[in-house]
Each structure stands twice: as structure tokens, then as C-alpha cells.
Amino acid sequence: MPRESPPSTLFGRRLRAARNRAGIPQDKLGVMIGLDEGSSSARMSRYETGIHEPPFATAQSLGRVLKVPAAYFYCEDDRLAELLIQYEMFDAQRRHQVLSLAAELCAELG
After folding, report:
1. 40 φ, ψ to 5°?
2. What phi, psi does 38 have (nearest 5°)?
3. How far apart (Å, rounded) are the C-alpha atoms in residues 11 and 45?
4. How many whole angstroms separate alpha carbon 47 and alpha carbon 43?
């Protein structure tokens, strides 16, 4: 099995992290988002290593399969990226609670 190159882009780093967290191989992930089976592994590898960045619609498909919002792939702040993952898991009521708490904390800042 060929050794994976380290991601050179933010998108690639986030994609690899989400894929590894989900335990999905590159080729299977590509097929799951509708890529041809024969090229899915190579395309995913190019996205992860930063050779290519997918169109936003592809990022959305990747997010749906990996259960992360598309914004996660582009988020520069690691803590905010983790918060996006947590937020994605919440139902509407909990999301409202999180937003209300954030608004309260901002109001305290003045």
C-alpha cells in the first residue's frame, strides 16, 4: 500500500482528518460521493494532498458523507473547526441553545 503524502492545504488536512475519523478509505469515500470507482482513490488523494481543491458542491457531498459541515473544510481556526463538528451533531433545540449562550457571552463583553 502506498504511503500517503502529508496534506499541504487546509482543505486537504481537514478532509484527511474527517475521513480518518469516519474510518473510510479514500477509494470508498470517492465512490460514496458519486465518483467513478476507477478514479475515486486518486481524486481523493489529490484533494487531500492539495494538488486539487474540489468544487464547493463536492465539498458539500464530502461533508454529508463524513458528517461535518462544508465550512469545516475551510475553517482556519482548529478550535472553531471542532466546534463546527460538535454543532453539526446537535438538533435544532440544542443549536438554538448554543447560539443563545454565544449571544449572552458576547453581550457580557460589552
Report:
1. -60, -45
2. -70, -25
3. 12
4. 6
Q: Which three cell numbers stand for residue 22?
A: 469516519
Q: Which residues of 24-56 are buried (b: 16+ CB within 10 A; e: fewer)?
A: bebbbbbbbbebeeeebbebbbbbbbbeebbee
Burial (CB < 10 A; 0-12, 13-18, 19+), residue 84, is buried
Q: Please, are residues 43 and 2 in contact by the beta-carbon 8 Å criterion?
A: no
Residue type at 68? Answer: V
Q: Residue-wise pLDDT tens for the chain (110 aa)?
A: 456 677 789 999 999 999 999 999 999 999 999 999 999 999 999 999 999 999 999 999 999 999 999 999 999 999 999 999 999 999 999 999 999 999 999 999 97
Asked if 47 and 12 count as a contact pair (C-beta separation under 8 A), the reply is: yes
